């Protein structure tokens, strides 16, 4: 073999190797994003924050936090929005996730609802009544808090654990006396005239919710998660600067009436905040409340469930 042939062969091998490296580098990260009732995706789409991504997003929608937590546990999704109480239940069940973003809102819409013609007037009237809610949800939490505020304790017949659509039907058909739920379901029921708020979450709920990611995604996809969380913070800021536009887009994207979309959005007044001592104290209080209520088997130290190395407060 001549020198020229050897050189040519080496060049071809070298070129193939370079192409191989290039193809690996060009492979885009796939971020599997879970969502509840389309709210997170609607926020990002409306603010044009899904443009110019250096990674791909595969969306999966869930009606409530419990099935989202199951998907996180199975690593079917990498991240998703989840409330304070559902995150505690997920962690207590061994789900390997951490909160990478913290959101605080006015918790009014996390509420116990009754039919408009219900004779119930206060939390004390829930004695002996049946309440529909998702087990481990923020609705479950606010119902327990409402009962406790009136000096009541749940018994074996207090709760009927149902997903939102079935819980609403149970309330309207009269098979339960109350429905403990959250936004946008509260605003949808109110504006449609199907229910009224008996007990709202102010003073009962911390108003905390989180963007949670699996430990494996944090380890393998940290740059994509960092970029995603920053986009969520920017989109939230944009939404409150463009209330009419965002409310209309929210209604269209998640498929709820415009008046319900605007009501739940405006009164929540969400803001992304840093992980601070108050966040940890509030989340620990919720975990301890569940322990006292007998819903956790052992005390959960919540401080281990946060990764503060992501998006700053919005």
With helices defined by DSSP (H or I, 4 residues minimum), what is the helix count?
A: 12
- Specify the oligomeric state: single chain
- Tell me, what's the shape? globular
Query: What is the CATH level 1 assignment of the largest domain?
Result: Alpha Beta
Q: Are there runs of 5+ residues with pLDDT below 50, and where?
A: 1-24
Termini separation comes to: 66 Å
Whole-number tally of structural domains = 2
Strand content: 15-25%
What's the Cα radius of gyration?
A: 23 Å
CATH superfamily grouping of the largest domain: Periplasmic binding protein-like II
Total strands = 11
Order of helices and strands: HEHEHEHEEEHEHEHEEHHHHEH
Strand order of the largest sheet: 7-6-8-5-9
| Average pLDDT reading | 89
The secondary structure category is alpha/beta
Per the CATH scheme, the topology name of the largest domain is D-Maltodextrin-Binding Protein, domain 2
CATH architecture of the largest domain: 3-Layer(aba) Sandwich
Q: How would you characterize the largest beta sheet?
A: 5 strands, mixed
